Amino acid sequence: MQNNDTGNCLMSLNSSCSMAYDSVTAYVLFAAVVVLFTMCGNLFVIISVCHFKQLHTPTNILILSLALSDFLVGIFLMPVHSRFWIEPCSLFEPSLCTFSNMIGFHLTFVSVYNISFIAVDRYFALSNPFLYSKKVSLCLACIITINVWIVSLFYNSALLYFNGNFNHKCPSRCLPYMNDLWSTADLIAVFILPCVIIITLYMKVFFIARRHAVAIRATLKDRKKIGNQNNGDTMRLETKAAKALGTVVSVFLICLIPYYICTLLFDVLGQSYHRVVNITLFLFFVNSSINPIIYALFYPWFQKSVKLIFMCRICRTSSSLTNVL
Fold first, then answer.
1. Which entry of 151, 172, 255, 290 is 20 to 30 Å from 108 by CA?
2. In this protein, which residues make up the domain named G-protein coupled receptors family 1 profile (predicted)?
């Protein structure tokens, strides 16, 4: 009788271990697919904007910077964060925890301000298109994006250094520490201020787009006025671009806001705080996977570029001059 009980216990234990192994295997495969999709999708955006000269516009430089930050999220943050779900910080050296926190803060800052400048760019392009074409150049867009990366590096280095995170001993969880003053300052600088700018400007963009839609309909009634027809086409393209980037911005905010809400509810969440933060962080990282899907749905140039890349036509001479618009 005792042998039967022992055998049943061993069978139950083996069954539990098998189920746990299967779930871990399924999770690892899912995480690998998400990471690979994030890297490949954003790499297509990077190659497209860099290679095809038609895509060398100020707006696309900002999209390129956003795609680069999303690509780095797929390389550095997603694999590390995925391992946290299987095993917490005990698997990681303190230096890896510090590096992960630094990259996470850096790329979050860059992504938020890339989205903010995209909102500014679209508002300026729609509200004053003639001045926009004269004042906003490719060089200016490059300077802005480079400065965003540099400022983010210095800001987040100071943020983590003055809160003692470079001496992180890696306790039960690999989460950064910030005192109340720095936490408030970071919340304003990286969340509240950019979100106010983004939401305000895109509300204005929405109303401008509605006015443009009315103007386009009025223009299309008079087919004989070629000049007005061209203006209508221009307004329609700008409005379509604003709507597409508005979708990118909206999805970004949906993925970002839950994380910062959770950071404000530390006392309320109690022991479940770490788990909830990890879930919201995963949602924020998934945004890096969603952006290429949005580009594929809304941007014909991205669809054509990906097709040319898959067909290896970018290796041909003068392929950078190919019409993808």
1. 172
2. 41-295
